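Could you help me review a protein record that somebody else here produced? Do not assume that whoever made the record got everything right. The record follows directly below this note.
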Amino acid sequence: MIQLENNDKLLAYIRRIYCYENNIFILNKRSTVISHFDHDGGFIKEVDRTGQGPGEYSMIWDMYVFNDHIYVLDGDIRKIFKYDFAGNCIKEISIEENLTNSLTEILVNSDNEIIITSRYNDDYYIHIFDQNGNKIKDFFQDKKSWLI
């Protein structure tokens, strides 16, 4: 068990925790902040890029940590933001506007492809994009075929 130094801030409603090369990243599902700790639980910084300008998101729907970068999915404005661990925006990637689905999760695979899951009614989708936001492929799974 690691005790996190949180400077009297409550870490509640945790959506994601990533342990990546001696770093711990925590996303609170009710905030727009990613808390960054070292492997001993020492507080490093909060990444909070909320706003309407370049490199800023309106809401974090999900995040993923890969290759020394933090990927943030903002489904409200249909963008992915790629930050370094200091919170500097490295890249802002627009996602197709014609996706009517509710974007739910993000990850990056070993080929550096960005994978986003989404949901529309009771059907589920997987969308694969390159690092520039160009769609590579879509997969579809209806709810009925998930049932056994």
